[in-house]
């Protein structure tokens, strides 16, 4: 294995990603120094901060950020560190601060604007230089929102969030993700690099080997090209040609009504996301209300109408998305560096991967299902943490198939017999592009090239 240095940028091609980036401790340190402080990152859902004083702690590499609502319900974000002796101010993952931070070490206090309000024996510092309110206030972190997410950045000079995400907010403008609520939220400590997770969920090429049960629905036969757009990438899926989420219109020898119901029931029971009870109920109505001689276009038009009716029947809001907008949005977006979103009429499946300390062979994999619920009918907020994939067993059969690969991939990349991944330059563009952009950040400091002015 080559020793990585600041002058040794690994060479990425469309058909090759070197193994060093997954297993090198030096890359972990470079990411700490030059990646994580220079990008916009998802930190929490707005749903988690309802009242003044509500907070969420977000950790990334060695940094810890506290995001809260102040007394006027505006969002604030601060480095999670007392200015006295460096103790983290907040240990809990979330909660309510009341009206102030209180350091458990020496009882210094700060209001929700980060201003110190109590310093024990403050007179001791009477003649000390720079012992002022501004010098002692908590250090602010930039914060913004999109799609119901709270985003933070430690870079004071980075472009605004909308520019950073461009063109994704424009493509998703009518998906109304901000109206979605957390259906479930799970974090799995995973024995692989965070980029190994991103790569695994950044392409559909793995379906035949990883999800063989989908073959009977045509779901392993799709060829899914991907494109790079600035920092980000998109898996392109023409859903007018392949139905709501899979290759169903190609199944000309099958009864499309039966096919939609079968795939919906399969994935509702195994993935617990994207394909909801509304999807299944709508598909069931197809057999009851349409003839088996109905054309594929008639089936799909009726299915969309039934789907909307089933959601609205329980008080959930149907998003105002046109078929043209669905196709323009594509299938799956990777938002650089560590977020992936899979969209549907019923909501969105959202992934985030983060390093776990200094270990290149471990990461925190966060998974959210964001569903559309009637007002006040969303499940109670709950965050489930699993210390390893074995603990996750039984939670999500579909995702467990993916987890079955991750540790073995990480081990394989350490082999003397493996120099790097031979990525498909058509279907695995997102994999090679992630690493290419990453190396632009940590070796060439070329992040400004990706600004879309």
Your description of this structure?
By secondary structure, the protein is α+β, with helices and mostly antiparallel strands. Helices cover 29% and strands 23% of the residues. It has 15 helices and 20 strands. The chain has helices at residues 20-23, 25-34, 133-136, 161-165, 168-171, 194-200, 207-210, 239-242, 256-270, 277-289, 296-313, 323-329, 389-392, 397-412, 429-444; strands spanning 17-18, 41-45, 54-60, 63-69, 75-79, 94-96, 100-102, 109-111, 116-118, 142-146, 149-153, 181-190, 226-229, 232-235, 332-335, 339-344, 347-356, 359-371, 383-386, 420-421. The strands form 5 sheets. An 8-stranded mixed β-sheet has the order 13-14-15-16-17-18-12-19. It has a 4-stranded antiparallel β-sheet with strand order 5-4-3-6, with no helix packed on it. A 3-stranded antiparallel β-sheet has the order 2-11-10, with no helix packed on it. A hairpin with a 6-residue loop joins strand 7 and strand 8 (109-111). Helix 6 packs antiparallel against helix 15 (429-444) and helix 10 (277-289) crosses helix 11 (296-313). The longest helix has 18 residues, at 296-313. The radius of gyration is 24 Å and the shape is globular. The two termini are 40 Å apart. The model is unreliable at 1-5 and 240-252 (pLDDT under 50).
